[in-house]
Amino acid sequence: MPIIEFENYHEVPLVLVIEPWGHRHEVPERARVGVRYALAEGAEDRCYSAVSAQKIELWCEAASYEIDIVPPLPAQRLMRDICVRGGWCGGMVEGVATHVLDLLPASGRVTAEDFANLAIKADGDQTEPPKQHHLRWLEAKFAEHLGTASVDAELLHRTARRPFDSEPC
């Protein structure tokens, strides 16, 4: 069965309307949604979508459909938050484009302090020590999104599963 995927990049929920049924589904911020459908007998696999500020309307000549909404993992929310709200998106380190994920260990524990230092390091070559308020802000975001001051590094590298997949990546 075909699957169509959408991702809500907005910071507010999005409404997905499935036609011709008129079913409405709320897609949370940063979530991915998959619509898997069975074609009606003799129908051509042709879908139409209309996109507006906070709504997607999807029309398929389908006999039935199912939907799978996959919210982002806490670590993905953390990475987006520090980039969008704090500007800690990564930068050039020794001539190489670098993101904090590139500097995190593959295993072991990562503390909020470790994460904050690595996020600042990933933002580019530092000629002076990081400012304490930047470190504290990054540490607070770590704890806010992950719910603790220390996590297994593997958790920070994991990404949410795709719709209709059973396991996270």
Keywords:
single chain; 169 residues; alpha+beta; 4-stranded mixed sheet; 3-stranded antiparallel sheet; 5 helices; 34% strand; elongated
Overview of this protein structure:
The protein has 5 helices and 11 strands; from the N terminus they run βββββββαββαβααβα. The chain has 169 residues and is of the alpha+beta class. The strands form 4 sheets. A 4-stranded mixed sheet has the order 3-2-6-5, with no helix packed on it. Strands 1-4-7 form a 3-stranded antiparallel sheet, with no helix packed on it. A two-stranded antiparallel sheet has the order 8-9. Strand 2 (14-19) and strand 3 form a beta hairpin. The longest helix has 15 residues, at 132-146. The chain has helices spanning 74-84, 100-103, 112-122, 132-146, 153-157, and strands spanning 3-7, 14-19, 23-27, 32-39, 47-52, 55-60, 62-70, 91-93, 96-98, 109-111, 150-152.
